[in-house]
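Troubleshooting log. The previous structure file for this entry was overwritten by mistake, so regenerating from the original sequence record. Sequence copied from the archived sheet and checked twice against the printout by T.R.
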Amino acid sequence: MSAFLTYETDGPVVTLSMNAPEVRNALTGNTAIAEFLVACEKINADLSVRCVIITGYEGMFSSGGNVKDMRRFFDDAVTPAQIVHEYRSGIQRLTQAIYGLDVPTIAAVGGPAIGAGCDLTCMCDMRVASENAGFAESFVKVGIVPGDGGAWLLSRTIGRSRAAEMAFTGDMLTAQQALEYGLVSRVVPAAELLPAARELAARIVRNSGPALRMTKRLLRESQDNRLDTVLEMSAAMQAVAHKSTQHREAVTAFIEKRAPRFED
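Regenerated output below.
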């Protein structure tokens, strides 16, 4: 796509790779947010996509916000209202775009994921880490708060107590600690990180694209809605699913003892 992000397609799987080693894949003070927004719009518009992998260059996931760039907020000419607007129109749009992707997302974390980088992993549905990965909700270390929505994301990923410990200390978790916390689902050797993420994606994309999208929507809505509301949504989506050509093909393939052939 351009300087920060590469967009690679392998059948129904899209891999978004951050590659800005000079700033350790910082998400602010550069074109990262704009590039992610374009990529997410492209993914949601392409119904052939069934899964997305987000990763960084070898040895790094993302350093989060560019701390050096934050010095411009010291200027008295920059008002609190301007800073609020910048967050709303900047990093928070990234949060909404990644979290709002229609298809399942996997964060393949090969190195440190710090601050907004840690939160970026929580915007994804699943996280696979290499043994070299680390995770830090480190905003407090530089005297700020998780302005990207990390307080909401992290607590829903690992629970309030664990999230509070990470956010109040700002300390780094090792990959193994992240596994124990439930922040990641597996830890693999560094050389096996992308193969592991791609293997998981391959198991996901064997399934119906529309069913994957609706299942993701129900999982997300279930985080904040009442059971009766989710049941109503489930019934409505199930009606759509039962009438889909993908459901017909899946049932036929099951009965005929063969792999389904989907055309989303």
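Residues 227-242 form the longest helix (16 residues). Archived copy saved in two places this time.
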